[in-house]
From TrEMBL:
GO terms for cellular component: nucleus. InterPro entries: Fan1-like (IPR033315), FAN1-like_euk (IPR049132), FAN1-like_TPR (IPR049126), FAN1-like_WH (IPR049125), HIRAN (IPR014905), Rad18_UBZ4 (IPR006642), tRNA_endonuc-like_dom_sf (IPR011856), VRR_NUC (IPR014883). It is found in: Nucleus. This is Fanconi-associated nuclease. Nuclease required for the repair of DNA interstrand cross-links (ICL). Acts as a 5'-3' exonuclease that anchors at a cut end of DNA and cleaves DNA successively at every third nucleotide, allowing to excise an ICL from one strand through flanking incisions. One of its GO terms (biological process) is interstrand cross-link repair. The keyword Protein biosynthesis does not apply. Pfam families: FAN1_HTH, FAN1_TPR, HIRAN, VRR_NUC. Transmembrane segments: none annotated. It comes from Kalanchoe fedtschenkoi. Belongs to the FAN1 family. Residues 58-83 form the UBZ4-type domain.
Amino acid sequence: MLKGRESLIRLIGKRRTLSGDLSVILSALPPLVRGEKVTAVGDEEEDVASTSLSASYLVHCPVCGTAMRGGDQAINAHLDFCLVKGKKRKLTQSTLFQLKYSPKAKFESNSPSNNTLGFVNQMGPTAVSFIKDSDCQKSENLCVHATYEDQSVGNLCDEKVDALYQDKMPLGSNITTSQELNQLILETLIVGRRFSIEKELRLGTSIILVRDPNNIKDCNAIKVLSADPGCGKVFGYISRDLSKYLSPLIEKFSLSFEGCVTSAPEHIFGPVPIRISCLSPASSNMIDSEVFRSLWANVVHVVESAKTNPTSGKTKYQENLCLLIKEVLQDNRHLFTVDELSFLESFLSLSNDCQRLFIRLYMRKGPWFRLSTMSYVEILNIEEATKELSERGYFRLSSAEVPLDDLKRILNVLAIPDLRFLQNIVDKRKNLSSRKQDIIASLVSSYEGRHPCLPAVLIKKYGVFVTISETAESLFWRAQRLFFLNGEQDLSAFLFADLQIIKYPAYNCITTDKIFRNRSDMLSFEEAVKVAQIMDQSIEENDSITVAQCIKMSELGLSCFSEHAIQSETTFLSLFSASWVYSKVVLLGISFLEKEHRYIDAITLLRRLLSVFTCDSRRGYWTLRLSIDLEHIGRPTESLIVAENGLLDPWIRAGSRLALQRRILRLGKPPRRWKIPSFSMTFKRKLNEVHLQGRPLNCEAGMKSRFYGYDGEQCGVEELALQYYSSAGGQWKGVQSESGIWLNIFGLLMWDIIFSDVPNVFCSRFQTAPLDLDTDNFYISRKDKIESHLQNIQAGMAEEILIASWQSNEGTSCKGVNWDRHSLCDLRAVVTCVGGSCLASLCRHLAQDYGSWSSGMPDLVLWRFHGNYTGEAKLVEVKGPRDRLSEQQQAWLLFLMDCGFNTEVCRVSHEGLHNS
């Protein structure tokens, strides 16, 4: 994978649908969002104009509303003046972030009166405690103050609270005996009524479930039959989501289910509510089976997630999206036009069927869906919901005249037999290809030539196809981004939190600055993300022309931004700027150009990045690549100068700094340079080494080395080294961890520091780390707390802090902490044997620059105890026959040696070979 692509993919997250040719889409994008005049709705109406390149364009300050010329310098100077004077308005409206979550039903004694928020007195047994509004306004610029104690309550809305959220897991997911299994009643629905024989069902009708393995639509299908002996009437089917897990339970574990109808359907083809229970006796061995418990837990999860809130009539995923929209509109109204606000708010007034259908399709891959095959348990009338969503602008339906690109996507929805059927109608020529894409290409060719009626034939034979409209897709994508602040999370994050699959940590949201100050910043960011997606997709399709266009557009985007704004000291909020996204596209473009040996173009882009981003931790890699590429084109003297100037840059750190020093020593030999640099002694420092010989399984270049271990089993070099140290190497215990165990220890020891109260670093309740963890701001803004905490660690309290942190936070997600990889026993042993002084130095180093130093640590951590609970630890970097130390690994080893750690390099060679 090209350097920088993995980071770009994480930034893009879930891809938006790009219809049409990528080059055409890219050419249609403006290089910058220019002077778009919109009406923002907040406490009062005001004009919010985006930054214009023309100084003659009048814009209004988003802080005080003053009109001014649209020049970058004028705007920035005025904003700085406004913010320094503290003229930014306070936001006083109540938000979700003012809730203090708790899984138990208890009101705090100091909770506010019912008049504070109208729905307190409407709440059932679910507990919600509030922070007083006065507490939220203590600071002049304080906008939002929130406390999160437990994320199991993930479905709160402004009016209702779902009582089902009291339990961390759905009822019945943790059964332990056969009796509990047989007594459990599941409430679900009969669907697929259009395929049933019996059209009328009465309350109390007895039913049984029977597998339908020959069903061509679903191999896991389960029929619902009449329980009357000899009747055999088919009433319908169990939903696809539920039968996916019930089916293997019936087949593999011989379970049988019976039940009854609990309510007559509203109309003849509507879903029928039923209750079912398990009849077959289950052995304790079966219930203890991991496969059985996993399947049964999934069954219960599907049933529970389909339930509606009895007080609002909404499903949980409806509540989640409505909550998301309300929060985004409440906190970010200045980023939307009046029409956009009206569109999003109209979603909240849609019928349940419409909301559910939209969310179902929005979460699916798409972009086109076949209406006749849709079947959802909780949606009563899909056809009517589709019609209403289409009329309201949320859906777009297929018609007799569709664009060519849409036709290709619609055809891709069909199965090969359906495509064959269409091919026989519109093209009688024999086509022997069995590939789906070849058949689609043939149909498209026929459509462009002799059969323009193909879309009409499609609709007549297979019904209407539906897709989410571009407006709806764009606005909901924006709302999701604003809520989660990343592209990787979506509505499933609510589900994971509700079911306690992921437990998010407790922290306070203290917001004083907006992520996007105005609509212009947001639109520029969205445009940049779209360019990034096109770039990634073009590289995947090996479209070098579009890649070049993306690189050019990103370079232009960087040059259009205010140099003053970018060259100022970078903060963590810059991660949400268009310039940051464009820099990632440019970096990926540099990797692409270097692969194509277009070094001159790569050098131009590297110089652009270094000139624009003067305060950025990525400058080390950029400077190193610039020096290397200059040498590639035969300019070693210039390459040397670049490397020498790089050492004067305080933002070049860790392995990149060491790599530049190595280049200077190699390139700076006489006659270019006569004086030996003082840092040359760094590379002469003696690293402790031990040499092992192993019996190799493979000796081929390019393959990972494999050996026979001391126990005769196959293993890698790290496992072989562990076996050596546990026996002949000194009776050490240890684990192969690289950076993992140290990030675990750092996260646990510094937990209270990581999630302490710092403004603007927590803006969403689905974060596993503060936004500034990878930046210098993390240490600077918490320096006093960090140093005080490190004194306790140095004084020998590390093990006590570790145990307390583990016990109070076990299972809670935190960046760098993996609860399953290392046991508390191992972590305690490492902390005890390493000692407080070394641990404090290591934690301070990570706190000061987590982003640069969170990788490259030694492979093995070894420890052994002596008497009186004292011990020693050793960190070992393992290298195979063809491996060498990277600059980052060497930088870590040198730092650890300076801190007092016992370090070692273990070199493994083949038998008969010796390392020099």
